[in-house]
Amino acid sequence: MSSIHKGLAGVVVDTTGVSMVNPDTNSLTYRGYPVQDLAGKCRFEEVAYLLWYGELPTPAQLAAQNEAERAHRALPRDLVLTLLSLPETAHPMDTLRTAVSVLGAHDPHEDDNGPEANRAKALRLFAALPAVVALTQRRRHGLLPLAPRDDLGYAENFLYMTLGEVPEPVIVRAFETSLVLYAEHSFNASTFTSRVVTSTLSDLYSAVTAAIGALKGPLHGGANEAVMATFEEIGTADNAEAWLTKALAEKRKIMGFGHRVYKKGDSRVPTMRLALQEIAELRAGHHLLDLYEALARAMHDAKGLHPNLDYPAGPAYHLIGFDTPVFTPIFVAARITGWTAHIAEQLADNSLIRPSSAYNGPTERVVGLVG
Ligand code: ACO
């Protein structure tokens, strides 16, 4: 039997120029730039441009992109009606997946896989997804959707449409940091899903819809929501150690810890941990920070495992005012940039992704009468 690479662990399936994850140095670069530098010095719109075009934008290029993005922030009326017709109990990731599907069905260029057409689609999804997240959260509170404001940057408008006001600059900046950190991470499960779908020469909306499905799972993006559920279950920092001992004895996976690639710590965590601290200081969230540290310490002592990005992002989103079920949709709104950069890269040098399997079912037999 040929060797099996369960979960494709350690298998290098292709090259990519979008980002580089280096587990030995705990580093992550987007198109060569360290992600911490991008988070500290760039707007999220600039990082999106970098992922799509390979270079940071000039002021004129950024202004042109911003104008196009602002023009596509509002959702088409038909889409709003479709989303409002979904059950109120629908998971926001289902709402988002539906929204992308509907936007595809309405796009007369859906099947045009040329680079320009796909860049236009990527920009439209980038512009529209915050409105879907905002509509979903507001509906949960019985509130009507708000029209986007084109006098605001991407992150400010995202927060305004969801929360009804633009929060303090520290909060905006911390939120934007999370978007930059979530934007891209090489061949993770959802990005690889988008590349598999693209490799069949299907359309960008189908690839993104499939990627949303992959990201929803708690072993991937769904972990940021699960972290919050864990924090609620533990309650306070002094319960963390006893809670963890019991959870590990029950063989539970502790959400927000561990990573397939980083075994010595997720390169994005220190930056997001700092952002969480800034939010906690403004929003009286020290109890969450204490719990964060207590559980991280206990997990390190018990299993030697480090937090991943979802661990600080969950409590940060909670303190900003997002409902837990929209945490993973926010991850989608950020990762749409990385996914669509990978879709373009896949199409530029496509080869159908179709691995092999080793059969372990019954040996060949003859069809006969049953009974
Ligand atoms: N809680 C408890 N034990 C864990 C955890 C965890 N979070 N993560 C890994 N382990 C243990 C496993 O049980 C296993 O132990 P064993 O060898 O005694 O059986 C060992 O560490 C290796 O773990 P694997 O699951 O084999 O590692 P893998 O690389 O396949 O998994 C994964 C990585 C899926 C992220 C895993 O660490 C996990 O389930 N974490 C929780 C979910 C999570 O936080 N996901 C977010 C990922 S990052 C992101 O999407 C931004």
UniProtKB/TrEMBL annotation:
UniProt key word Ligase: no
Alphabetically ordered keywords of this record: Transferase, Tricarboxylic acid cycle
Active site residues according to the UniProt entry: 259, 310
Pathway involvement of the protein, from the record: Carbohydrate metabolism; tricarboxylic acid cycle
A molecular-function term among this protein's GO annotations: citrate synthase activity
Catalysed transformations (reactions): oxaloacetate + acetyl-CoA + H2O = citrate + CoA + H(+)
Keyword Transferase set for record: yes
Transmembrane regions listed in the UniProt entry: none
InterPro entries in the cross-refs: 2-MeCitrate/Citrate_synth_II, Citrate_synth-like_lrg_a-sub, Citrate_synth-like_sm_a-sub, Citrate_synthase, Citrate_synthase_AS, Citrate_synthase_bac-typ, Citrate_synthase_sf
Origin: domain of life: Bacteria
Any Gene Ontology biological process: carbohydrate metabolic process
Entries under Gene3D superfamilies matching the protein: Citrate Synthase, domain 1 (1.10.580.10), Cytochrome P450-Terp, domain 2 (1.10.230.10)
Pfam families reported in the protein's UniProt record: Citrate_synt
A GO CC term attached to the entry: cytosol
UniProt record similarity statement: Belongs to the citrate synthase family.
Listed NCBIfam families: cit_synth_II, PRK14033.1
Protein name (database record): Citrate synthase
Source organism of this protein record: Amycolatopsis azurea DSM 43854
